[in-house]
Amino acid sequence: MPTWIIVGAQWGDEGKGKIVDMLSASADMVVRYQGGANAGHTVVIKGEQTILHQIPSGILHPGVVCVLGNGVVIDPKALQEEIRMLEEKGIEVEGRLFISQNAHLIMPYHKMLDQLRDKSLGDMKIDTTGRGIGPAYVDKVARCGIRIVDLLERDLLKQKLLRNIEEKNAVLQRIYGEPELDAEAIVNEYMAFDKMIDRYIRDVSVLVNNAIDEGKTVLMEGAQGTHLDVDHGTYPYVTSSNPTAANACIGTGIGPTRIDGVLGVVKAYTTRVGAGPFPTEFDEDFGSRLRELGAEYGATTGRPRRCGWFDVVVANHAVRVNGLTAWAVTKLDVLDTIEELKICVGYKVGPDRIKKSMPSEQGILLQAEPVYESMSGWQEFTSHCRSWEELPRKAQAYLDRIAQLTGTPIALVGVGSGREEMVIVRDDRVGWIAEAAAASRKNNLGE
Ligand code: GDP
Ligand code: IMO
Ligand code: MG
């Protein structure tokens, strides 16, 4: 049974939650490998929306084991709230959620520093989610982070925390003019988290490798997206982790030989929330039309998402850095009423110069002029479609063009936010995904 990575191909919010939820009906385990509560993954079942921030999107399927790998940064307070939210919906979490002992913890000072720093950048701000992600990864790499396992060694924990807080207090006071943090209160608060979190802690590398050895089906759920990757994204307007596929191995403790395929999730257009370059961004008028059609507001912060045309340069970068096997194209239905569609096939970066790959230079990317191909819209509703044949001919042509320009087959097409609103494409090249989606459809309908 296979192990697949599900990864965002644009700037996040591609609809990974819905795809992971759907495939989870055919999976045994779903693992998050990076990011933290900056993610907002939406699943809609029979009209009821659930937004997951840290817990994998497989949790809505009873019997699926959900895992947070060592690469995730855990906010224990937010995690407690998320567990409570799920339990209130009647979803059992204990016994199905496991967290790596090596995952780092988000501390109160991470959130404060994240927000203060971003604000202080003024026009140059990243517009982060303010969840403390950047500062937590900074401490991890600086080797002063607090791991979950550190909660077990009380004296050492206290020593490390006091040292960290002393340092952070100096920054908070001297750079940002903020009052000092109460070290004792933080120490006590985190010691109390130990009791709550203890039951979830496992050696995740052993857990996931054993599952693969036993022939279980494992999904690796990426958060954020390829162009928010700290190495491969639009730096510095990125998050502080590696959402790209290779990090699924590092972030869980499995080897690359254990991966069978990588599914790229991509919207039928493009969105971005937060600051940073976005070559195919719409003008204000058309942008707000699409924002309303696609309900493009952040699942974590509620911020309006910036919207633009489908960008093949962005998509092909994701194909290459993730080694994508196939696409899940989401939100096709949002384009149902659009008269004329455009696909960006290159960037004009000088009088006679067209670039087909992402420029790394901030200035060039900011000024890149998209080169478009036009296609006429289908102007028919698609949300009822479940198979390729049911899609309007012009919608097929649009999708075919995306597959052709990216050299990557399409396995799934989202035609609505609901769990069942999906076209499953029968294409031999997408192998397990089409089979699993078909089996999932049966399972989900049986609920
Ligand atoms: P994620 O972060 O990648 O999981 O995506 P988000 O949940 O942040 O944002 C995707 C939004 O689009 C959510 O509101 C989903 O319910 C919705 N969505 C997902 N797939 C589709 C689709 O095919 N059609 C429509 N109309 N909405 C979708
Ligand atoms: P999901 O998993 C969309 C963006 C923020 C900001 C930048 C850095 O739901 O796709 P951070 O708080 O991570 O330091 O912010 O990254 N960002 C996301 N955008 N979807 C996400 O997650 C995001 N997580 C972070 O808006 O521009
Ligand atoms: Mg999201």
Catalogue the ligands. guanosine-5'-diphosphate, 6-O-phosphoryl inosine monophosphate, magnesium ion
Query: Biggest sheet, in brief?
Result: 10 strands, mixed
Major β-sheet strand ordering:
9-7-5-2-10-1-11-15-19-20
Silhouette: globular
Runs in which pLDDT lies below 50 for 5 or more consecutive residues are: none
Q: What's the average pLDDT? A: 96
| Tally of alpha and pi helices | 13
The percentage of residues in β strands lies in: 15-25%
Percent helix, as a range, is 25-40%
Termini Cα gap: 23 Å
Total DSSP E strands: 20
Radius of gyration: 22 Å
- Multimerization status: single chain
Structural class by sheet pairing and helices: alpha/beta
Structure description:
The chain has helices spanning 16-24, 76-88, 108-120, 133-141, 154-174, 183-197, 204-213, 247-250, 284-293, 312-322, 362-367, 393-406, 432-445; strands at 3-8, 29-32, 41-45, 48-52, 65-68, 73-74, 97-100, 104-105, 201-202, 218-221, 261-267, 270-272, 306-308, 310-311, 326-330, 340-350, 353-355, 369-376, 410-414, 422-424. It is of the alpha/beta class. It has a ten-stranded mixed beta sheet, with helices on both faces. Strands 14, 16, 17 and 18 form a four-stranded mixed beta sheet that branches. Helix 3 (108-120) crosses helix 4. The two termini are 23 Å apart. The mean pLDDT is 96. The structure holds guanosine-5'-diphosphate, 6-O-phosphoryl inosine monophosphate (IMO) and magnesium ion.
